[in-house]
Amino acid sequence: MDADPDRRFGELGGRLPGALRPRHVDRFAGERAPAGPKYNRNGTVRQTWHDPLGWAGLDKVAPPSRAPAVLQARTEVLEAEAATLETEVEVEGDALRVRDLEVRALADEPALASLRSRGTEELRDAEAAQAARRRRRVDLAETSRAVRAELIRVASNDWGDPRAHLRHEHHPIPPEEARYGVLIEAWSAVSVSFLLLATVALIYLGVLSWWATILVVIAAYAFVEAAFRRRLNVLLLRLTLLLAVIGAIVLAVTYVTQALVIALIALAGVILYDNVRELRGR
């Protein structure tokens, strides 16, 4: 008999299937270490690590040495598909006209109404399929034209925007935003001290009561903060909604009796209207 049961249990757990292995998870332990360049915060491998070309959007870009050949091959494929589709359009067009004549012929026989109905549905389906072929033919023509134009540009070493493949494009911070950021940081550094000094000064001088002083200081701070953060319109809108709600509550409490009387009169009118309409309908 093994003298160390913990080691014995560990060996047994190593041979168990994954669903039966004992799991020791500390949900409050937090992160063991920074995520680093390879792993995300949830433990998965970053795309920048295992697929840098896909992350940068370069896996879809053909190398310059192969781009002309790829475009030429694609042009040939599009033209071949367009030629095949053109033949299908002509053949199905002839069949569509024959089917339309058949449906018209069935209209002269009343006993064949069900057969004419099925023929009409099949004719509509055939028309929709033919319209789809014509749309596809136009799409192939436009795509082939664009590919040939791209081939001409590539042949002349015109590769377009070199950043067109980027999906995570970054730009330097504009100077005006940088200056605005410095102003925000300065306000954040002095705002708390200014708030405390203003509160102490108003209470010490006795200009307002202590609760009025706190309300005034908080309101002024919120106004200045919203102005610095460029959210003054949002603040004013929320303040307007809050005052509207408070006004509605005050009106409801003040005129609760009148509101109840009006509601009862309206209810009586609705009931009377329904009863009179029911009597007139008899």
Pick out its properties.
mainly alpha; 282 residues; disordered N terminus; 0% strand; single chain
What does this structure look like?
The protein has 9 helices and no strands. It is flat and about 100 Å long. It is mainly α and 282 residues long.
How are helices and strands ordered from N to C?
HHHHHHHHH
Average pLDDT level: 78
Beta content comes to under 5%
Report Rg: 39 Å
Spans of at least 5 consecutive residues with low confidence: 1-25
Total DSSP helices: 9
Q: Which structural category fits the helices and strands?
A: mainly alpha
Calculate the terminal CA-CA distance, rounded to whole Å. Answer: 96 Å
**How would you sum up the major sheet?**
none
Topology overview:
Blueprint: H1 5-15, H2 47-50, H3 52-56, H4 67-106, H5 113-155, H6 175-205, H7 210-228, H8 232-254, H9 256-281
Helix pairs in contact: 4-5, 6-7, 7-8
Summary of the model, kept short:
By secondary structure, the chain is mainly α. It is 72% helix and 0% strand.
